């Protein structure tokens, strides 16, 4: 931490994506004043959360399940406009409309026990002594790269969804796409339009979902993720248990053979990938659409993790420290879940602040 003075506040919100802005909105509705009673810290250079880093070919019309922030609808967005632009502009307007005064770019380096019952949030712009914390740091900054034998020998290009530039970079190439989630299928379908050859590999056979994804199905999916969090296990994403929507684009890709899947390879060679049964595929590029993990290392000094590796929650509140709330984590990782979690966290924090008067 640098030599800036430590400021006292009631609440620090870390992250200004969907979950963080939802928390900030509900703090303001509860009567707390931005930059006096609470602060919102964001390490990104501009509004938009993780959306600002998405690839240009992910247009707003392709976004799956974007839910409006509380108090302000997202209207009039062109389906063919990049989602990074649409949601970046929407978040900018939202921050301005509610005067949330987000501090950026600010890197949070650690959260530890402070003095007089407060938490000390150490940042690149000084410290904050806070009575409560809303952690809304998401997953984008922690892409998950599986490790396979021979990975370092591959002579082509390897990249993760976090670095995906769009399909044009793969024109005329032989491409292996790894991962059975929404990003993997989106990458695969658009790369197949320009690549010389594509190969899709996944750990498990993909599950395609027929029909609408109704409220009952949504509740069941969230409950599965929530159970892992209650047990103190690392959360799976809500999307990982919902299956892939079977829309017209997916049907067309299946008919063309683009979505013919192979099981996970056993090793990587200088020329491509190989299986123990003797099968090989030559490749110029491997795209790892293998997901992300929660960004929570800055909370390590508080020792919130359970033996299973996750942070156990009651609602949004960390079981090991009632001052800490995680929103956009586990069952609240969807956009609608983040909105609800922001409201629930603030409700609990308000009770905590009323129960524990500030110490001068």
What Rg is obtained from the alpha carbons, in whole angstroms? 22 Å
How large is the share of residues in beta strands?
A: 15-25%
Would you tell me the structural class of the helices and strands? alpha/beta
Helix and strand sequence = EHEHEEEEEHEEHEHEEEEEEEEH
- Characterize the overall form: globular
Query: How many beta-strand runs?
Result: 18
Low-confidence stretches: none
- Distance linking N and C termini: 23 Å
Biggest sheet, open or closed, and with what strands and sense?
Answer: 8 strands, mixed
- Put simply, the count of helices is 6
Helix content percent band: 10-25%
| Mean model confidence by pLDDT | 90
Could you walk me through the main structural features you see in this protein, from its secondary elements to its overall organization?
There is one protein chain. With 360 residues, the chain is an alpha/beta fold. The chain is built from six helices and 18 strands. It has helices spanning 18-29, 83-97, 182-191, 215-230, 248-256, 335-355, and strands at residues 7-14, 38-41, 108-113, 119-123, 126-135, 157-160, 174-178, 197-202, 208-209, 244-245, 261-263, 267-268, 272-274, 280-282, 285-288, 313-314, 317-318, 321-326. The strands form four sheets. Strands 1, 2, 3, 4, 5, 16, 17 and 18 form an eight-stranded mixed sheet that branches. It has a five-stranded parallel sheet with strand order 6-15-7-8-11, with helices on one face. Strands 12-13-14 form a three-stranded antiparallel sheet, with no helix packed on it. Helix 1 packs across helix 6. The protein starts with 6 loop residues before the first strand and ends in a 5-residue tail after the last helix. The mean pLDDT is 90.
């Amino acid at each position: 931490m640098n030599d800036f003075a430590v400021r006292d506040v009631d609440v620090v919100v870390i992250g200004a994506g969907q979950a963080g802005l939802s928390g900030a909105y509900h703090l303001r509705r509860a009567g707390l004043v931005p930059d006096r009673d609470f602060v919102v810290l964001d390490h990104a250079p501009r509004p938009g959360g993780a959306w600002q880093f998405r690839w240009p070919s992910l247009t707003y019309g392709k976004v799956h399940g974007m839910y409006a922030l509380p108090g302000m609808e997202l209207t009039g967005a062109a389906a063919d406009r990049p989602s990074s632009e649409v949601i970046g502009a929407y978040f900018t307007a939202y921050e301005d409309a509610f005067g949330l005064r987000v501090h950026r770019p600010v890197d949070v380096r650690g959260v530890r026990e402070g003095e007089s019952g407060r938490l000390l949030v150490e940042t690149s712009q000084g410290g904050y002594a806070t009575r409560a914390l809303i952690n809304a740091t998401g997953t984008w900054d922690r892409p998950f790269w599986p490790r396979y034998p021979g990975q370092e020998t591959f002579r082509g290009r390897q990249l993760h969804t976090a670095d995906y530039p769009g399909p044009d970079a793969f024109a005329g190439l032989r491409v292996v796409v790894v991962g059975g989630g929404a990003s993997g299928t989106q990458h695969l379908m658009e790369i197949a339009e320009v690549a010389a050859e594509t190969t899709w590999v996944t750990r498990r056979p993909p599950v395609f979902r027929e029909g609408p994804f109704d409220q009952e199905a949504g509740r069941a999916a969230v409950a599965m993720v929530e159970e892992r969090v209650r047990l103190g296990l690392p959360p799976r994403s809500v999307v990982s248990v919902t299956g892939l929507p079977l829309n017209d684009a997916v049907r067309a890709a299946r008919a063309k053979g683009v979505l013919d899947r192979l099981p996970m390879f056993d090793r990587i060679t200088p020329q491509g990938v190989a299986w123990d049964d003797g099968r090989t595929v030559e490749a110029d590029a491997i795209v790892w659409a293998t997901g992300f993990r929660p960004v929570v290392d800055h909370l390590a000094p508080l020792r919130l993790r359970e033996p299973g590796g996750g942070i156990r929650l009651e609602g949004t509140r960390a079981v090991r420290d009632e001052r800490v709330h995680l929103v956009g984590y586990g069952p609240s990782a969807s956009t609608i879940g983040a909105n609800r979690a922001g409201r629930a966290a603030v409700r609990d924090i308000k009770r905590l602040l009323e129960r524990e008067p500030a110490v001068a």
